[in-house]
Amino acid sequence: MKIENKKRLHTDVLIIGGGTAGCYAALTIRENSDYSVIIAEKANIKRSGCLAAGVNAINAYIVKGRTPQDYVDYAKKDADGIVREDLLLTMSEGLNRVTEKMERLGLVILKDENGEYVARGNRNIKINGENIKPILASAVEALPDVTVLNRINITDYIVEENTIKGAYGFSMEDGTAYEIRAQKVLCATGGAAGLYRPNNPGFSRHKMWYPPFNTGAGYAMGLKSGAEMTTFEMRFIALRCKDTIAPTGTIAQGVGAKQVNSLGEVYENKYGLTTSQRVYGTVMENLNGRGPCYLRTEGISKEQDESLRKAYLNMAPSQTLKWVEAGKNPSEQNVEIEGTEPYIVGGHTASGYWVDTNRQTTIHGLYAAGDVAGGCPQKYVTGAMVEGEIAALDIVKHLKEETLGGWMQQDVMELETEEAFAKKIAEYNHFLEPKREQFRTEALEEAMQKVMDNYAGGISTHYQFNGKQLALAEEKIRQLIELTEGLNASDIHELMFVYELKERLLVCLAVIAHLGARKETRWHSFAENLDYPEKSDDWMKYVNSKYVDGKIQILYRDLVEKEAPYEHHD
């Protein structure tokens, strides 16, 4: 087949990604202005992004007796200081506000006999959240002058003189190529899964912690356009229930289950209680012959059994089904745990775009929010919403200023270039033209995952790496990038797979460069550098990067504190 149909659209604001941050940003823009919005979503906003299957708790909330600064301190400690305090504070200050907004939209938040939210630990509250994404999506679809383009795969930004002008993509439904021109663009595409070989092989490889459809598209588009990125070396490795890869926090916090080894010894305090240390401790106990490792649930009450079974039905039903299949409740058998493959995700760690306090990237008019925005770890669902809100309010502010200054719609029309759009369509058709191919997309993807697993700190190497391994990883990833030009897509669905592979490979290059650039081991397992096994105060700084002339150029920046919010300077 061949792409022949094309559409040009114009809007005030283009939101790429209709997940948590993207939807909340659209709500905020329309509540504070009359600007038009287009949401371009690769799937369907009713069930897309990290909220697709629902959640059973709000993991970022300021409970009674706590303050936003407490949350900043927690996230900073967990990331061992490599955070943007200005981003963390502005995010934390909005957590309760967006939670209350979601409740007004219909989200069920559990309450006690006094009408207070039921807390789960120091920062969490319990919800019935199976339908949290449909609630958010329905609110967006009801907005006037908001166009939702479902099943649109955005592949490239349109950037002129370091200013965003829109994006290119294609429809998964009918193969129409799209050029969407916009005055401002918000990237809310999420992080990157599928870079490394996952826990489960073959048919079950989709059983992973992070959505397998999040391929790092936003990161890749930013890199190709010259945006600055930050902290890709702080990979996220989730500690999860074995095989189902279901969350462990529900068990650890919900019933107070401790991490124990095969001897029944509690080992979590031995290694530390930060997110990375919990993973590291599990790896080390297995390496030292004291595995398997578990969350100790044996002996919990029948009420707690029932609570856990219901809780997992809200977000990871495979875990409930595993208990049913085994014929044993959690109280009768400890839950075995393992680490996942590494992910690049700004919602749990600090990886992503380098942004200012208002979430604008180093490309003028391009914003980032949610998992794709760096510097602000532990944001979770509500933090992503807050970042969408912060970006949206700044977008509205700047649009109003620019309109007063004479920035008019016809200026966008004058910037259109038929030649650039035609070139992009030709690129799509290059992969759709029948040709003798040496490799298929799936084979190259598996090769990429094997390279990253073996040479860039994957599961098979216990998340460890050294400089020579990283050099081999880069060499082999570059070879795979060259091979992608010979790929053939028989239809639009396969064309999407080609672009997802290209996105992942570029993100792999950035990850490899970042892992090598931080010459210390600050986060065990997340970045376990065998050449530099100790932590050093010399590395209390950010490792940033840009993609220049086909190479990842590393930049170092000083830490930003909340008292001095960071703003870009040309």
Automatic annotation (TrEMBL):
It is an enzyme of class 1 (oxidoreductase). Residues 12-375 form the FAD-dependent oxidoreductase 2 FAD-binding domain. One of its GO terms (biological process) is anaerobic respiration. Signal peptide: none annotated. One of its GO terms (molecular function) is steroid dehydrogenase activity, acting on the CH-CH group of donors. Keywords: Flavoprotein, Oxidoreductase. Its EC number is 1.8.99.2. GO terms for cellular component: plasma membrane. SUPFAM superfamilies: FAD/NAD(P)-binding domain (SSF51905), Succinate dehydrogenase/fumarate reductase flavoprotein C-terminal domain (SSF46977), Succinate dehydrogenase/fumarate reductase flavoprotein, catalytic domain (SSF56425). This is Adenylyl-sulfate reductase subunit alpha. It comes from Mediterraneibacter gnavus.
